[in-house]
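Sequence in, structure out.
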Amino acid sequence: YGTDTLDDAKSLAQAAAGEREIVFRQSNHEGELVDWIQEARTKADAIIINPAAYTHTSIAIMDALFAFDGPVIEVHLSNIHKRETFRHHSFVSARADAVIAGCGIEGYAFAVHRIVSLMDQKE
């Protein structure tokens, strides 16, 4: 997506988090994503996920997210509803507490702000 890199997205997210710890992971493999989500059940307070093409196909990712007790924010760089019709449905949205789409990599910072707000409300 343009000239933005994964490191750029990570920097924006970390800046938005302030002193809160962020673990940033990326994989093109569905099983690895599911493993990380399951691991997060005991190691993370929240999940921000960009499921990319798995948005529209992965019941496994959706099921893993339903087993996670904390907040989940779904992020998409593009607006999936302005794309092909088959991209309009998201299995992940069924579990997500919020969906951020069409904001480019800034969406990650927006997601972190929302997670921080949800966590502050919980405390």
